[in-house]
User: Which sequence fits this backbone?
């Protein structure tokens, strides 16, 4: 219910107006809110209206990158151009895009067929974007993960100091202090592993466009049985390991850190794009970092999410509570990835 209210609050920032719709060359018959977007019923079929929170330079980077990838992998979200020939419209202080709606269903990670199809699709998507040309340095993450890990470790230490300083500790503080030393140690292990790996060499040789947000609802199994990727708001230039790690952790963390699911992803991916032993070794370093624990901790202590205390606590319990399953997964996957 809380998510619904957040979406409603966000949708209230939209300036729905016939003048906005007039900026596109189709007729809008109806507009229905879904999550944080509007579904438009038009004379050319269903479209998505979305208000974006980044600037036009970033939007053009996303648009141009997707156009480059589409030449070899067409199963990605498509922008509709405005009557001005731009992939967006600036209206009443906001930036709006219209996207073609893809007919299909959301991927189900628990379904091994869906998971295998999605991993193969990801490999083909990466192949289509290999050595992509880019000019947007903000979205260029090549060679930056080691420094990011260092920074995040320092962040977690600062959050620990904040929690210790609180005289009347919150439930979140108490839980965070219970787990933080362990997860800081895990983060240090990830840092040491990557520093001794071929990470920097890989950044110079096999970079691509990475989706960077491979939640199940951003992967659509189309009615034509192709795998479509949508919502590229967070896409970046990086090595493929970034996305492979993202898909693995999103698929397994709610499924008891099922190692077979991870193997399924890697095996399916490599059937379309071979992964070298150096890449697998770097992938293990990515998996070692406790990203979920860091994200919820940062959201709480930096107040980047407008959530109730109870929601923060629930998320921390879930994300920190699978410690044993995560340990088992990392222990057993090491031989597979680092041989």
Assistant:
């Amino acid at each position: 219910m809380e998510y619904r209210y957040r979406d409603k609050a966000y949708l209230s920032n939209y300036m729905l107006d016939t003048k906005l719709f007039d900026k596109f060359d189709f007729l809008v018959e109806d507009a229905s809110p879904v999550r944080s977007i509007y579904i438009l019923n038009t004379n050319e079929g269903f479209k998505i209206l979305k208000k974006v929170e980044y600037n036009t330079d970033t939007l053009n980077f996303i648009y141009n990158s997707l156009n480059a990838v589409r030449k070899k992998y067409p199963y990605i979200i498509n922008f509709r151009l405005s009557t001005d020939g731009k992939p967006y419209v600036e209206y009443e202080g906001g930036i709006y895009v219209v996207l073609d709606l893809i007919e299909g269903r959301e991927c189900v990670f628990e379904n091994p067929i869906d998971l295998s199809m999605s991993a193969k699709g990801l490999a083909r998507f990466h192949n289509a974007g290999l050595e992509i040309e880019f000019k947007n340095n903000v979205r260029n993450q090549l060679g930056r993960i080691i420094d990011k890990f260092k920074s995040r470790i320092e962040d977690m230490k600062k959050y620990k100091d904040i929690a210790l300083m609180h005289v009347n500790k919150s439930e979140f503080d108490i839980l965070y202090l219970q787990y933080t030393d362990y997860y800081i140690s895990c983060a240090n292990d990830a840092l040491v592993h990557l520093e001794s790996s071929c990470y920097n060499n890989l950044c110079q040789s096999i970079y691509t466009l990475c989706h960077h947000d491979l939640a199940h609802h951003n992967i659509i199994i189309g009615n034509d049985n192709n795998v479509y990727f949508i919502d590229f708001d967070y896409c970046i230039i990086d090595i493929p390991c970034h996305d492979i790690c993202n898909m693995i952790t999103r698929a397994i963390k709610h499924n008891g850190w099922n190692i077979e699911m991870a193997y399924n992803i890697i095996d399916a991916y490599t059937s379309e794009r071979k992964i070298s032993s150096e890449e697998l070794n770097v992938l293990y370093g990515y998996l070692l970092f406790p990203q979920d624990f860091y994200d919820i901790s940062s959201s709480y202590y930096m107040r980047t999410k407008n959530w109730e205390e109870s929601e923060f606590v629930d998320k921390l319990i879930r994300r920190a509570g699978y410690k044993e399953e995560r340990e088992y997964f990392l222990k057993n996957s090491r031989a597979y990835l680092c041989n």
About this structure: The chain has 13 helices and ten strands.
